[in-house]
Fold these 2 entries.
Entry 1:
Amino acid sequence: MPVDGSTRARVQRMWERLGRACEAAGRDRDEVRLLPVSKLHDVDEIRAVHAALAEVSGDAGPRSYGENHVQEIVAKTARIGPDEGIDFTLIGHLQTNKVNAVLPRIREFQALDSLRLAARLDRRLTELGRTLDVLVEVNTSGERTKHGVGLDEAFGFCEALADYEALDVKGLMTVAVDSPDTARVAACFDALVALRDRLRGRAVLGSTWCELSMGMSGDFPLAIAHGATTVRIGTALFGPRAY
Ligand SMILES: *Cc1c(COP(=O)(O)O)cnc(C)c1O
């Protein structure tokens, strides 16, 4: 896949910013996973970013791309070959009636926020004889417009997930408040860290609880400073989305 100059420059710049953010936070680069978010970008744009990331990172291995909508994942997986090294992670809300359609097409699900959905996923996965990596989405900002389990209920919610053996619960995800006030954004990240520590401290689900997926194009350096282990980056890698 040939990579045009502007894609390469954008990807290179993002890769460098990621390195600087890790350095500034005194963290090892390997501790922070980059999940490129490809929603609303077509498969050729994904291929171009994929090729550019392989160049700048020196890692031509497979990568997962974040998507918000089941229909978009279905359409894109139909056009991407199994040997292209590209697969998808669902980072948006999932309705129970779309579970069967999406399960064969995703590597990971980062937005688990209801026990009804957990039960539905677990049942279908058991039928398929497989497991799925999941993160619990937590609404750390308290905004009504956001999905996610409320901070008050999150601990109990996570405890209840122990009943679903096909769900491999890897950690927590949040979308911070979109605000120029960095203290408010940081408070969202800290709330997720505190919840993770509480879950770990009580050994609720054993030692597999470690992932913190937080930080996007506008706030990833702050998220890394606060302990993010995965950052979800759309605009800074792909350019603006056409709605
Ligand atoms: C779209 C989206 C992102 C990426 O957002 P950018 O600001 O474009 O980096 C990250 N996480 C979630 C849940 C998203 O929906």
Entry 2:
Amino acid sequence: MATAPSLYDTFNRAPLRFARGEGVWLFTETGDKYLDFAAGIAVNSLGHAHPHLVEALKAQASRLWHLSNLYEVPGQETLGQRLVDATFADKVFFTNSGAEAIECAIKTARRYFYVKGQPERYRIITMEGAFHGRTLATIAAGGQAKYLEGFGPKVEGFDQVPFGDLAAVEAAITPETAAILIEPVQGEGGIRPIESEVLRSLRALCDEKGLLLILDEVQCGIGRTGKLFAHEWAGIEPDIMAIAKGIGGGFPMGACLATAEAAEGMTAGTHGTTFGGNPLAMAVGNAVLDVVLADGFLDHVLEMGKLFTQGLASLKDRFPDLIADVRGSGLMIGVKCAKSNVAVVEAFRTEHVLAVPAGDNVVRLLPPLTVSAEEVRDGLGRMEKALEKLQGGTARN
Ligand SMILES: *Cc1c(COP(=O)(O)O)cnc(C)c1O
């Protein structure tokens, strides 16, 4: 039910009104507190009101908010160089969102072949269950009927294959194929990791056929899986990568990273943005990296991930009628439900734990990467209580 008639009815909102946040906790207007294991869908990577981020934003806000990309923006140079130093990339383009970062990735791949004199190579192979954003091109890339319906002709140039199916990828390659685009761990699709072996084979296939490998790390990047980027687990490097969500820690921003070769076609005037790379966003992005790149931070993510997953595994043993599987990596965790995932999200919410439903009947748990062992245990206790009630409720029905 729409509670605000003035707003588009595009969101089914839970009847919760939060007034402030602190760490992993959110507080309602009436003072109730919730454990935020949704983190704005993997956006609040350092929790709410992290002092270092607040300080960085305040300091920048008192100096300069916006500068056109007609001028040099020092924060972009710093953050760009830090991302280059930490990854495969040589070049970075800053955006305001994940979808824009993917749009930039798609345009970069198409231009690469255009300037090589192969403009006919523009098609991109994607995977079923993918999610790449809500713009016209990114819904075409994601290929999900529910997001395409009613929005006119699907943007041309995307060929979808079954998830993780190497033979199908190979069969889908034609002389018009430019790239393969995948999420190393599907988020919206239900926390489905691509096996490292498959990712390595896709890299080899791209090398063999002269294709570009584009990774969408909008959700799984920036420490979420316990490595700075999820593809590092497979020991491979992409040619182009889109990031967003966690890099802004709650401030809207994204980026498209590329090798110098892949970015060759993106010359002056070919692409642009008004707000992308805004000084406020750059200040916060740099502050997020200060924390995520600090010694021991990713070890903490792995440790908390292990604690969380072990706790969930025992819940699975206790409630086999409700939990079918626990999967994921680091603090990107999926609980595959045996019954309705939406009912489980609602049961968790009743115990003041926030989680997010995903495809494949999964409940996503994406706590801030700063979550403590005590908070993980607190959350597991609340989830156990929620599942007990749910079990009792279904037993009576
Ligand atoms: C959220 C998401 C996007 C889109 O990001 P927006 O900022 O909503 O445009 C793209 N890809 C993945 C994997 C995502 O999780």
